[in-house]
Design brief:
Blueprint: E1 10-14, H1 28-48, H2 54-63, E2 67-71, H3 73-79, H4 87-115, H5 121-140, H6 164-184, H7 200-203, E3 218-222, E4 228-232, H8 236-242, H9 247-258, H10 271-276, H11 281-290, H12 303-306, H13 308-313, H14 319-323, H15 329-332, H16 337-347, H17 383-393, E5 404-407, H18 413-425, E6 432-435, E7 444-445, H19 450-453, H20 456-465, H21 467-482, E8 495-500, E9 503-511, E10 517-523, H22 529-547, H23 552-559, E11 568-571, E12 578-579, H24 582-594, H25 605-608, H26 635-645, H27 650-658, E13 668-671, E14 677-680, E15 687-688, E16 691-692, H28 693-698, H29 702-711, E17 727-730, E18 733-736
Parallel strand pairs: 1-2, 5-6
Antiparallel strand pairs: 3-4, 3-7, 8-9, 8-11, 9-10, 11-12, 13-14, 15-16, 17-18
Helix pairs in contact: 1-4, 4-6, 4-17, 5-6, 8-9, 23-24, 26-27
């Protein structure tokens, strides 16, 4: 959101690490030092970065864009007892962002003093200084008329609600950044963004990501390999302590939210009751081990935890019952829905703070999250609060903010329209709206499944209310899937040969009369039978999908960037030079040729155009000629052979052969590792027509020998001892596979 075709490396600071745990105040000196340090690190990384295209690489180097940001703002506000949806929170967000942003620009100006400004600075100097001045004005929250060339007034820092020390630090840093920039310019055009810090936030020990509030007090993250794991907000105890609650009160509130994680003391379902129903100590121990991470006790009572032997012999369950995912062992044991729910609240928690013992209603807003918490929670942060928080930070971000504006499942189209309109009026560069449950799968959930809390009667009524619609939709879907567009018997297409990581691949396509892709064939004849068969089956599956109407775009999005061996450099394709796998290569090739997706190519169409300055090198019709085998013939044998082949000219041929030395001694011939051929005798090198074989080998160019060695997996450098091109990587040095010599330290 800064300049088209630019990119930046990201770095995010965990704001909670800069908090004084006793006072809750932000350690401004430490924050400034971290910002200064990471601005320098990101500047260094500009030279180390790799980019997806030449255009992006050029502009990112020319403008030297950085991506410094922060995470855990929502947690910082919560542990200090500040509601996310409050004016004080907006002011604190604006001040912290301004300190980070302006300190980073001041550091950039300091680097410009020593290294010079970025390449595009002089031609953009006037505009950039105007932007920096507007950043400073937002820190002082000047009147609307003082901003330069702005049609939308930014939301500045409100001094009435901002802590004085934060406000003063932000304004001092704004003055410094402008003053230093006027003297020396800036090393970087962009310095700050706020990244999403999703999964990486877990490694950073963050309860919240980026500028977000918490998604829910207790949430379940979907794992890529299947399953979920339970995430509990650890900010609740320090927040309650900051609000003045005692240790006993805090423990009871926390247990109400996340549960006790044990059977002992649980109402209705506990160790004593389960023992009376035949549960052994061994089985109870297995259950106890699973309860702390469970989000519903029903999921603990299953065949995989209890064991098939126990389920069948003690609980008298048959295979059909155990295989039925809707079957409830707890209900089979005689527990009612209310008893299961009461035990679940005690063991796994209510997952909301609403209704917790001792908690004052005035403090509920401190623990509000982006979504309703658990099955009983009703409170959540309104979409307007998300937008206001982004508006508080945007005046001090040179890039943009990656943030999800969460909407409840019942949000309407008008609600979404209002969010976009409000974002535009407050000067946001972008936003992302997400209505809870609008996708079939989402990474974070506030409960295991809505089906857990729904009564069977409600489900029955819902199914009865719309039976016709379901049937009609089902017919349409089945008719669509069952329709297949047959390929013509004679079809056009092309064959593309390529080498991927040294593995030869042939991709053949078949097209309909209108040029649309209808089938593919993949041939890797030198691979094993199993791998080759899998690739054939994969090609058939893709072909059937294409013929049944699956868009090629869907296959491309699904399979591009898949990573497995073999992969690496691609030879033989004019547009694709690297591939993360064979599947990645196949769908890059198809996307480029049938969808015009040149963004997936490594060489653009313009670069492929031949010009007077760049013309393609001619490709030889044949590979280089190599000596495969030879046999020395006697003069009599040669004369007989030539007489048979041609009746004329035999005298000349005989005279020529006579001049060839035919030593009767045995000669040894072997191929060396670099691909050359050595013919050795006991006394000296064999010569043919006065030309030694060593001279013939030496006549091959250095480039040919290097290329041949690299194709065989060597480094392409000659050995300093034996001269062979068989050097392999050995730590930080090279080792010769022929003689064992090394290039130095190893």
């Amino acid at each position: 959101m800064f300049l088209d075709d630019t990119a930046c490396n990201l770095a995010s600071l965990n704001l909670l690490k800069f908090e004084n745990p006793e006072t809750g105040e932000l350690d401004i000196a430490k924050l400034r030092h971290a910002v200064r340090l990471w601005t320098i690190v990101l500047e260094i990384s500009v030279l180390m970065a790799q980019f997806p295209s030449r255009r992006i690489a050029e502009l990112s180097y020319r403008f030297r864009t950085l991506g410094l940001g922060y995470a855990n703002l929502g947690t910082y506000l919560m542990v200090n007892g500040i509601p996310y949806d409050s004016k004080k929170a907006l002011s604190i967000c604006g001040a912290i962002t301004a300190i980070m942003h302006m300190t980073s620009y001041a550091t950039s100006a300091e680097m410009a003093k020593e290294l010079g400004a970025f390449e595009g600075y002089e031609e953009n100097k006037e505009s950039m200084m105007r932007v920096i001045r507007n950043h400073r004005r937002a820190a002082f929250r000047v009147s609307d008329s003082e901003y330069e060339n702005l049609s939308i007034t930014p939301l500045g820092i409100d001094s009435r609600h901002c802590p004085p020390e934060l406000l003063k630090a932000a304004q001092d840093d704004a003055d410094l950044a402008l003053r230093e920039g006027e003297k020396y310019g800036y090393r970087n055009a962009q310095v700050t963004v706020i990244a999403p810090t999703g999964t990486i936030g877990l490694l950073m020990d963050c309860d919240t990501t980026g500028i977000e509030p918490d998604f829910a007090l207790v949430k379940f993250k979907k794992l890529a390999g299947g399953g979920y794991f339970k995430i509990i907000n650890d900010s609740i105890p320090p927040a309650l302590e900051r609000l003045g609650y005692g240790e006993t009160q805090i423990n009871e509130i926390v247990n109400y939210v996340k549960g006790h994680g044990r059977l002992e003391g649980s109402p209705c379902i506990n160790t004593e009751v389960l023992r009376n129903k035949g549960f052994t100590d061994e089985v109870l121990q297995k259950i106890e081990e699973q309860l702390p991470t469970a989000f519903d006790i029903s999921f603990v009572f299953n065949r995989w935890i209890l064991g098939d032997e126990f389920c069948k012999e003690v609980l008298r369950l048959d295979e059909d019952q155990l295989s039925d995912y809707e079957f409830s062992i707890l209900k089979h044991l005689g527990f009612s829905d209310k008893e299961i729910e009461a035990a679940n609240d005690f063991i796994c928690g209510t997952m909301t703070i609403e209704g917790a013992p001792h908690l004052k209603q005035d403090h509920y807003s401190v623990f509000d999250c982006a979504n309703k918490c658990g099955k009983k929670g009703q409170r959540f942060i309104a979409a307007k609060a998300h937008i206001n928080m982004m508006a508080a930070a945007q005046p001090f971000i040179s890039g943009s903010i990656s943030k999800t504006i969460n909407l409840p499942a019942e949000a309407s189209i008008d609600d979404i329209k209002e969010c976009y309109s409000m974002s535009w009026k407050l000067g946001l560069k972008c936003n992302a709206l997400y209505r809870d449950g609008s996708k079939l799968s989402q990474p974070l959930n506030t409960s295991a499944s809505t089906d857990i809390w729904d009564e069977e009667e409600d489900e029955l009524q819902e199914s009865l209310a719309h039976p016709a619609a379901v049937q009609v939709a089902e017919k349409i879907i089945h008719r669509y899937i069952a329709k297949r567009r047959r390929m013509p018997f004679r079809r056009n297409g092309y064959t593309q040969k390529a080498l991927i990581g040294g593995h030869k691949l042939y991709l053949r396509t078949g097209e309909y009369e209108d040029g649309a892709l209808g089938e593919i064939f993949v041939d890797m004849h030198k691979e094993g039978a199993a791998f080759r068969s899998l690739m054939n089956c994969f090609a058939i599956a893709i072909s059937l999908g294409l013929q049944h109407g699956v868009p090629l775009e869907e296959f491309v999005e699904a399979f591009v960037f898949t990573r497995f061996e073999p992969n690496g450099m691609v030879m033989g394709n004019k547009s694709i030079k690297m591939s993360t796998s064979i599947i990645d290569y196949i769908f890059r090739e198809l996307a480029i040729n049938y969808l015009g997706r040149h963004d997936l190519a490594h060489v653009s169409e313009d670069d492929l155009q031949a010009s007077s300055l760049s013309t393609p090198e001619p490709v030889p019709d044949y590979d280089e000629e190599r000596l495969v085998s030879e046999r020395t013939m006697s003069t009599e044998e040669s004369r007989s052979y030539l007489e048979e082949m041609s009746g004329e000219g035999s005298a000349t041929a005989t005279a020529s052969l006579a001049s060839i030395s035919t030593d009767s001694e045995d000669h040894a011939m072997h191929a060396n590792d670099s691909g050359g051929m050595s013919i050795l005798s006991d006394s000296s090198e064999e010569t043919v027509s006065g030309i030694s074989f060593a001279d013939a080998t030496a006549s091959r160019s250095q480039t040919e020998l290097v290329q041949e060695a690299r194709m065989k997996g060597y480094e392409g450098e000659p050995c300093g001892t034996c001269g062979q091109f068989t050097m392999v990587r050995n730590g930080s040095c090279l080792k010769c596979a022929s003689c064992g010599a090394t290039s130095g330290c190893s």
